[in-house]
Specification:
Layout: H1 6-28, H2 37-43, H3 46-60, E1 66-67, E2 70-71, H4 72-87, H5 90-108
Antiparallel strand pairs: 1-2
């Protein structure tokens, strides 16, 4: 297979390097740069915002996997919200939600 558009490959590699450098800079510079308290406080909300950005479109778009004509995600979402509220742990919420999704999807035959 020959590469028909090498400039696209170069662009993808460059974008990957830039993205990696941006993300790595936070890790590599964290001891040398002191962020203001307001920025540090705002950064504590990033994981919750990312989860909301991932989950919301998935809930609003019908999947076709149903259990008694109810999309299984609508059954899992309130329980996952409760788990997130009680545990205050994103990882526990994701593990619980995905496990429940897989189980209910298997039960629904999807």
């Amino acid at each position: 297979m020959t590469l028909q558009r090498p400039e696209l490959l170069a662009l993808f590699v460059l974008l990957g390097v830039i993205t990696f450098a941006l993300r790595a800079s936070f890790v590599l510079l964290q001891d040398r740069v002191t962020l203001p308290a307001s920025i540090r406080r705002a950064l504590t909300y990033v994981p919750s915002a990312v989860i909301a950005a991932i989950v919301t479109p998935a809930l609003l778009e019908p999947s076709g996997v149903t259990l008694a004509n109810v999309d299984v995600r609508y059954l899992i979402a309130p329980v996952a919200i409760l788990v997130a509220w009680r545990s205050k742990n994103v990882v526990i919420t994701i593990v619980f939600g995905m496990t429940a999704l897989w189980i209910l999807t298997a039960l629904a035959g999807g």
